[in-house]
């Protein structure tokens, strides 16, 4: 049906390439490109062996718009799936506009020199994509991505008004490493060391990092200590669902992980400003990334599950209602299917689904869009078909306090 260009060959890029190949009736011609072509070649060989599908590979520096434009024009895709670094979102969007192709990503833009992530930079592209007759789909992973679809699904089917939203994200897996991050270490550590933030009564409340926490019970996993972070989907959700009185994002962390992170912060290894070392400028966090285990190396022998969902309270037909919608994903099972761990899988599969819905015309309209602005039903349907089965419960107790 369509050619797609995937940019990024890390853990998520590998899963996206595998799942696109497994849906070759939609993704009829696939190219995987990265700064390091050998990583793409390894994934391509794996896909050929496991799924019997041949994909093309290429080298590209996605920071350089002209190089990306040249690759797009030579390959001729309909859509670029950006699973590179968030720093590269804007250059790739610029390249898509210049080359006249659709765009999607899994995480919003953040500048390399400031640990700040928000949608304003990408939302500013809305008119340019509309005028070009092109679509840009933002943040189509799991969180962001599926969590926004879950919220839109709740609004469509279960509520007349949503008042309280808590996104809960647990990784109860064990990879056997003393310290490792499940996605790009540089992005992960920047994200969780920033002040927390949540929405309440029409404004943002900022808190010290990891200062609000409590145990939350996760299906098939049990109780895990969960911490309030700021996460990008909150920005678009409170914009698109203005009845929300409070919206928060919770994520679990083990004590060993937090202890390692405290030590790394205390000795300056999480800094993002350059320091002089042997006459050269190095960024400590970039050096730390180089010595930590790569996320795409964690899949083998990874055990346990992830559990990610939305817990919502609101009103339906004049009555108060609670609603919990979630997915649990098993690390060992995802490794068998696509040679990836569940954190990469839960990001990569929704990216493939979003791309599929765009290419089949179900989610195709010019402009710049977040996932909750589109029909959630076909996305949920594909999650159930593509390895991320959705569970839901209505009117069960939720582990949160709600003002009277």
TrEMBL record:
Q: List each copy of the Saccharopine dehydrogenase NADP binding domain by range.
A: 4-137
Any one Pfam family match given in the protein's UniProt record, by short name? Sacchrp_dh_NADP
Saccharopine dehydrogenase-like C-terminal domain boundaries: 141-388
Please state the span of the N-terminal signal peptide per the UniProt entry. none
Concerning InterPro entries, the annotation shows: NAD(P)-bd_dom_sf, Sacchrp_dh-like_C, Sacchrp_dh_NADP-bd
Q: Could you tell me the superkingdom of the organism this chain comes from?
A: Bacteria
Q: What is the name of this protein?
A: Saccharopine dehydrogenase
């Amino acid at each position: 049906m369509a050619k797609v260009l995937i940019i990024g060959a890390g853990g998520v890029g590998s899963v996206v390439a595998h799942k696109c190949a497994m849906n070759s009736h939609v993704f009829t011609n696939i190219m995987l490109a990265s700064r390091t072509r050998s990583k793409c070649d390894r994934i391509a060989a794996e896909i050929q062996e496991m799924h019997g599908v041949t994909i093309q590979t290429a080298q590209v520096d996605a920071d350089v718009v002209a190089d990306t434009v040249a690759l797009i024009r030579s390959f001729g895709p309909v859509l670029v799936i950006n699973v590179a670094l968030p720093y590269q979102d804007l250059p790739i969007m610029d390249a898509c506009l210049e080359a006249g192709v659709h765009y999607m990503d899994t995480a919003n833009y953040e500048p390399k020199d400031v640990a700040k992530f928000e949608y304003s930079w990408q939302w500013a592209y809305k008119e340019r994509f509309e005028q070009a007759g092109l679509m840009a789909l933002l943040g189509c992973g799991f969180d962001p991505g599926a969590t926004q679809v879950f919220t839109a699904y709740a609004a469509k089917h279960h509520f007349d008004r949503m008042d309280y939203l808590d996104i809960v994200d647990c990784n109860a897996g064990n990879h056997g490493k003393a310290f490792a991050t499940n996605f790009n270490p540089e992005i992960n550590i920047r994200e969780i060391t920033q002040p927390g933030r949540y929405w309440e009564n029409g404004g943002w409340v900022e808190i010290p990092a990891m200062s609000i926490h409590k145990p939350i019970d996760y299906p098939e996993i049990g109780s895990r200590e969960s911490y309030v972070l700021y996460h990008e989907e909150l920005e678009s959700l409170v914009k698109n669902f203005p009845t929300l009185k409070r919206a928060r994002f919770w994520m679990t962390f083990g004590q060993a992980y937090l202890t390692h992170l405290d030590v790394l912060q205390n000795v300056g290894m999480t800094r993002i400003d350059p320091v002089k070392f042997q006459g050269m400028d190095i960024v400590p966090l970039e050096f730390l990334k180089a010595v930590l285990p790569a996320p795409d190396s964690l899949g083998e022998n990874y055990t346990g599950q992830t559990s990610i969902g939305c817990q919502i309270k609101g009103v339906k037909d004049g009555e108060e209602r609670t609603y919990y919608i979630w997915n649990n994903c098993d690390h060992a099972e995802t490794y068998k299917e696509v040679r990836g761990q569940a954190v990469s899988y839960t990001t990569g599969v929704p990216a493939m689904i979003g791309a599929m819905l765009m290419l089949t015309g179900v989610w195709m309209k010019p402009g710049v869009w977040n996932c909750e602005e589109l029909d959630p039903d076909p996305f949920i349907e594909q999650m159930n078909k593509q390895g991320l089965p959705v569970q839901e419960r209505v009117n069960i107790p939720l582990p949160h306090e709600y003002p009277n």
